[in-house]
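Example 9 (inverse folding). The structure is encoded as follows.
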């Protein structure tokens, strides 16, 4: 017997623009209860989604694609996606441009312009990461009011899981539409008693950047602790264990690495720093600079071993992810190469034979034979048995 809640779901259509981690996880989540049409400009992604094959590596998305009855369709036609939609979620990529010191928000504005051209008053919800003040600026620029910002807090490879069990939901408006959107997200999740906060979009934009910059700070902190211990010949693991027994610090997110990377942390920290123009600060700039210092240190430690050929084991950031955009290992590769040392790469998710002017070796045994030293941001079973040849700072064998 259908209740009122089920009846409301039957007549709700949600459009999602962009099918990366954010867009596809939301499209999957919401299509359990609503009609969802996802718009993307990449034909191969649209085809995969319609054939219920996830174009990104995410265990829960693929599981839901295989096992759940999803009311989800992908399309290359934005009008088909946006027409008659109650909400249009914008989750297109916004890369940070080092030259301008600003996110490239052109893909977000392109969607806004498409909606305006259709002469519809559907509420747009920006899920892409944007600079503080962006939503208010586009309201003025396009003379619109039907747009708000709602940050996402997802981990690569666990995006759908983090939507099913969200740490919190934040909606950047206090209107009736905002309350409805917050209700849609909470009712679609499996977690109970979710913290939901409504605030202005500018504050919500700040929450996103400050949250990710804090995570970058934590990575940078334990990396600098590790740098100190490594140079002084101390046991990093013992120090971290002792420090993290303090409940105010906690035993999590403390495994040393070659630096923070991925889709969000590097660009979000840089964007927050750019937003601090004319505002006193020391810490935010230090977080950004610390990541470069860490990669310098890692490269120095590798170079000191005088290898002829350095083997890089995996470009991906961590297990369960197929993403290596802005991965810290790439900065290490550039530094090692600049010292005239040959670098070869083992990355099974990469179809190309060349990456950053380095040979990509698909045969693992050949890779081992060619490499004088193997550099690995994270250790797995493939290389755990050849520790003497591996240089890593992965002390806890977890992300």
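The amino acid assigned to each position is listed next.
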């Amino acid at each position: 017997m259908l209740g009122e809640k089920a009846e409301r779901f039957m007549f709700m259509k949600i459009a999602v623009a962009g099918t990366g981690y954010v867009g596809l996880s939301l499209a999957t989540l919401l299509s359990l209860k609503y009609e969802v049409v996802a718009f993307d400009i990449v034909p191969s992604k649209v085809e995969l989604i319609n054939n219920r094959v996830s174009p990104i590596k995410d265990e829960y998305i693929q599981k839901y694609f295989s096992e759940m009855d999803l009311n989800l369709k992908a399309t290359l036609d934005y009008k088909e996606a946006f027409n008659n939609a109650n909400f249009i979620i914008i989750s297109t990529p916004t890369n940070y441009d080092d030259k301008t010191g600003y996110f490239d928000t052109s893909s977000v504005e392109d969607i806004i312009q498409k909606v305006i051209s259709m002469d519809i008053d559907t509420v747009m919800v920006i899920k892409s990461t944007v600079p503080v003040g962006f939503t208010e600026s586009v309201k003025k620029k396009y003379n619109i009011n039907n747009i708000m910002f709602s940050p996402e807090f997802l981990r690569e490879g666990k995006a759908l899981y983090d939507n099913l069990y969200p740490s919190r939901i934040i909606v950047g408006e206090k209107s009736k539409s905002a309350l409805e959107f917050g209700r849609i997200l909470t009712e679609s999740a499996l977690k109970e008693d979710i913290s939901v906060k409504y605030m202005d979009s500018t504050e919500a934009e700040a929450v996103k950047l400050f949250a990710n910059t804090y995570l970058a700070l934590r990575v940078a902190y334990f990396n600098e602790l590790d740098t100190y211990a490594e140079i002084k010949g101390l046991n990093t693991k013992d120090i971290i264990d002792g420090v993290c027994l303090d409940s105010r610090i906690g035993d999590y997110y403390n495994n040393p690495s070659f630096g923070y990377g991925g889709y969000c942390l590097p660009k979000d920290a840089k964007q927050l720093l750019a937003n601090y123009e004319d505002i006193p600060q020391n810490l935010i700039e230090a977080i950004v600079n610390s990541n470069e210092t860490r990669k310098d240190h890692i490269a120095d430690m590798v170079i000191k071993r005088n290898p002829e050929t350095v083997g890089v084991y995996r470009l991906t950031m961590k297990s369960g992810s197929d993403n290596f955009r802005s991965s810290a290992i790439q900065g290490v590769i550039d530094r090692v190469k600049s010292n005239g040392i040959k670098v070869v790469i083992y990355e099974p998710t990469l179809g190309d034979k060349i990456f950053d002017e380095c040979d990509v070796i698909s045969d693992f045994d050949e890779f081992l034979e060619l490499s004088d030293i193997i550099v690995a941001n994270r250790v797995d079973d493939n290389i755990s048995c050849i520790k003497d040849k591996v240089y890593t700072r992965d002390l806890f064998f977890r992300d």
